[in-house]
Design goal:
Blueprint: E1 6-8, E2 11-13, H1 23-37, H2 40-52, H3 58-84, H4 89-113
Antiparallel strand pairs: 1-2
Helix pairs in contact: 1-2, 1-3, 1-4, 2-3, 3-4
Length: 126
């Protein structure tokens, strides 16, 4: 049997601290799934833009800003790397950009599970 959800500092958590499918978590998972599917990143960015206008919590607003910047800078990086692949530099850049997007998505996912804000959502670093 599962125990009912408990309230912990004004937020609902599942039994044994279960996985919380909040909006920033869903967007992060879409970004990570795009490494396999190639298309869910587009779903993630649409959700991020739509949900950012509805954001009620400060912690989630910081995630939306962080995730929107992650997508658009990653997309721009891939376009630039695609152009530079004609001189073989882009072939080296593409895996680096993929790692950058992956790390930022995982960082947002971990913070979203704790419902903590991103420390600096406007940074391009991690």
């Amino acid at each position: 049997m599962t125990e009912p959800a408990k309230t912990d500092t004004n937020r609902e958590v599942g039994p044994n601290g279960g996985f919380d499918f909040n909006q920033p978590t869903i967007i992060s998972l879409c970004y990570l799934a795009s490494f396999v599917t190639g298309i869910t990143g587009l779903v993630g960015i649409v959700l991020a833009h739509v949900w950012s206008g509805e954001s009620k919590d400060d912690w989630s607003a910081s995630h939306f800003s962080y995730l929107i910047r992650t997508f658009w800078f990653g997309f721009a990086g891939f376009v630039i790397a695609g152009v530079l692949s004609f001189v073989f530099i882009g072939i080296l850049l593409m895996p680096l950009i993929a790692v950058w997007v992956g790390v930022r998505s995982v960082m947002s996912l971990l913070k979203a599970q704790k419902q903590e804000p991103m420390p600096d959502p406007n940074t391009l670093m991690f």
